[in-house]
Structure formats: C-alpha cells, structure tokens
Amino acid sequence: MMEILLISECFLIIALIIFLIASLRIISFKSVSMGLIGTSSATLAISLALIAIGTMYGIGFFKDIALALLVLGIVGTIGFSVALKKGD
Amino acid sequence: MFGITIPSFVSGNIIWVQAILLFISAILIIIASVGILRLDKNMPNVVYARIHILGIIDIAGVIGFLGLGQPLFALIYLILAPLLAHAMSNAYFHTEDDYNNSIIKNNDCEELSSESDLAADCVNEFVEEESEDIYSISTLEIKEDE
C-alpha cells in the first residue's frame, strides 16, 4: 500500500524537475518581469520538491526550509514588484 | 493526527487519496510546463498569458501540498498566489508593457524621435491615434449641438 504513495511522490518529483527546467527558461528572457515570474515559480517548485524528498526520506527540517522559502519567496517577489512599479 | 485514532481501513484509503492527489498535481504541472515552453514569444500579451498558465501550476502546487499532508502550506499558498500574480502583472503593466500602456508607448516614441529619424512610423502612428480621438470627440459635440 505504501508503494503507491512512493511511486506518486517520485512521479511528482520528476514533474517538478521538468517544471524547474521550464522556469529556468522563463528566467532567461531579458525582461525583468519574466525573471520575476520565473523565480516565483521556481520557488514553488523547490519548496514542493523539498517537502516530497523530506517525506520520502524522513527528514524533518526540510519542511521548515520549505516553509521559509515559500513565504519569504512570495513576500520578496511582491515587494520587488511594488518597488519596480514605484521606482520607474 | 490531532490525538484522534484513525481506523486502519480509513488510513489505507487516505494513502490512496494522497497518491491520486499527487498524480493529479504532477500531470497538471507537466501539462502547464509544456504549455509555457510552447508559447509563442512574439505574440502580444505573452507575459499575461504566462502568468495565466502559472495559475494552473499554483493550483497544482496546492493540490500537491494537500497530497503530501501539508494543509498549512496549501492554505498559505492558496491565499498568497493570487496576490503574487496580480503584483507581477501590475508591475509589468506599469514598467514594460508598451503594447497596452499608452504612457510607455508615447515615452518610447518621444525618446526614439529625439535620438534619430528612424522612429517616423512610430510618431506617425501616434499622431494618427491622436487625430482619431479628436475626430471622435468632435462628432460627439456635433450630436450634442443638434
């Protein structure tokens, strides 16, 4: 019964690796806004992958890292967007 | 969980539900990733289209967090993701969107016209747009007089 959960977590990690490649492609565009979009999506992918890996291997502090990365990444992206809008 | 003992048949079904949620999340992420990579970068409003596609990945992330047994992460991201998308699109509109934002378009035309003569088309388009606006306003005035 536990094998199906392990298989689904591995499948999720593979999907997240594909998504990380796509977000790196987005970051490589020359526009500043595309860099913002790419980094925010990469933040989500990395935090989700950290939780999946921490669940698979039983590493507890990966959850704390993922929480900090998720919240601070989003707040930083929103702050940079506001600064970009006002600073122009 | 929360001091409640879960029967064995319920916990077995929970594992199946978690696996199904993770599969759905992974499939949505793969489809959206391929969609982002296949999007034509020369089409107008492509940044808004990419932000729109990333909305699917946001919801896939929420489903993935639920499947991994982290409802707090799912709640936080469900609340913050729309704010994030709006902030990014708002910043793009006010700084780099020369297709929809007329202020940026006019500034670009003025800069080009002051530097060289290559921006004649841009200035002509701007003048035509202004003349159309004047014409439409004048017809309105005639109707009001009648």
What does this structure look like?
The complex is a heterodimer of chains A (88) and B (146). Chain A has 88 residues and is mainly alpha-helical. Chain A has a domain at 33-88. Chain A is built from 3 helices and no strands. In chain A, helix 1 packs antiparallel against helix 2 and helix 2 packs antiparallel against helix 3. With 146 residues, chain B is an all-alpha fold. In chain B, 81% of the residues lie in helices and 0% in strands. Chain B has helices at residues 8-38, 46-67, 71-95, 102-115, 120-145. In chain B, helix 2 runs antiparallel to helix 3 (71-95). Chain B starts with 7 loop residues before the first helix and ends with a helix. The mean pLDDT of chain B is 78. The interface between A and B is large, with 47 and 48 residues.
List the helices and strands and how they pair.
The complex is a heterodimer of chains A (88) and B (146).
Chain A (H helix, E strand, L loop, with lengths): L1 H26 L4 H26 L3 H27 L1
Helix pairs in contact in A: 1-2, 2-3
Chain B lengths: L7 H31 L7 H22 L3 H25 L6 H14 L4 H26 L1
The helix count of chain A comes to: 3
Return the string of H and E elements of chain B.
HHHHH
Largest sheet, strands/sense/barrel of chain B:
none
Cα-to-Cα separation, first versus last residue of chain B: 77 Å
Percent of residues of chain A in beta strands? under 5%
Q: Regions of chain B with pLDDT < 50 over 5+ consecutive residues?
A: none
Shape verdict of chain A: elongated
Quickly give the structural class of chain A: mainly alpha
**Total number of β-strand segments of chain B?**
0
Mean pLDDT of chain A: 91
Q: What's the SSE pattern of chain A?
A: HHH
Short synopsis of the structure:
Chain A has 88 residues and is mainly α.
